[in-house]
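User: Can you predict the 3D structure for this chain?
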Amino acid sequence: MGRVMSAVLFYARKDSEKNKRMFVFIIIAIALSTANIIIINGFMDGITDDFVEKTMETSSGHLNIYPDEQNRYIEGLGVKEQKLDTFDNVIAYSPRINAGGALSYKDKSKSIRILAVDPIKENRVTNILGKIDSGETLDVNDRNGVLISYRLADELKARVGDETVLVFEKGNTKVFRIKGIFRSGMALDTNTVILDFESAAEQLNLSNKASVILVRLSDIALTGQYKDTISRELGAIKVKEWKQEVESILSSTATFKEISSAINAIGLFASAVSVGVILYINILHRRRQIGIMKAVGMKDFQILSVYIIEAMIMGTIGIIAGDMLGYLGTKYLEAHPFSDPILGSLSPRFYTYILYDASLVTMATVILASTYPALMAGRMNIIKAIWE
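Assistant: Here is the predicted structure, written as structure tokens:
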């Protein structure tokens, strides 16, 4: 058995060396296909991770507390904050008020989303107040300053330091100074104005109420354990884990992953065709050699194994080259990301499992592509093979 396998490996290696152009062409096709899978999948994972991270950085805690379905606001905010202080693994929380309104600047006006936060508490949970594009962030107890999104500033031609009139949804109006312009890379950039929590509560006539409370735990893995506990201790309210908050993001990126899978499949198909066709042509040109191999006693299965192993040799070299290209390409694009005016920078991320997946899928494709030519070689009639 050992001699047979040695002979099979010998013929597979020799056959690969006889046509170096074919050998190089197949390796290039396999390498490019493998690198393509690594880079595209890296992009999909990078975009998904960026969205999730930006959501966690700006819009979500590990747990988010909402009012029950019958109420718009969480009642008894002070009592609930006191109860949150009693939990060992709750390291921070931040109440927010969400409301509608309008922003008037000079002769222009636009509907906006109002987001009111306590700067001290918010900075312990998210870094939305640190996403300043120009100007300054909100100070503690700053009742007269606001932050506006960069897209809102562009539409209204507003500048840092200018005064603007904020019309709240209940009809109250107040003049604020634009302290800063922020860029979060998320939906907040569309038309959001951020101001002090107490200032918004006063204008909206909300006493001891909040739209949502973002909660940060000592360990994100504790969300499942604390979700029910907090819901039970704080009364009839709704508590969501961070995973639930990013479900819409994950479902959207799933569509893009399906598109990337189709692109990868096209690349693999092109690679498979090149491997299959070139091996097929190579076998046609080596019919006499195959006949001689059979004449000296090699079985059909051994002939088949010669060409399967030949494909695996080329596949292994091509995959190694593709892994290197994919890794280098991903790292280059990580260092030189694409710029997007809305989302900011877009770049792939390299994960080891992507390399493993690409290598396994490509090798399986190469083996399948070589199966038909190898079967044809194994079943070739010895007489016709020698005399044709």
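The longest strand covers residues 90-105. The chain is about 55% helix and 20% strand.
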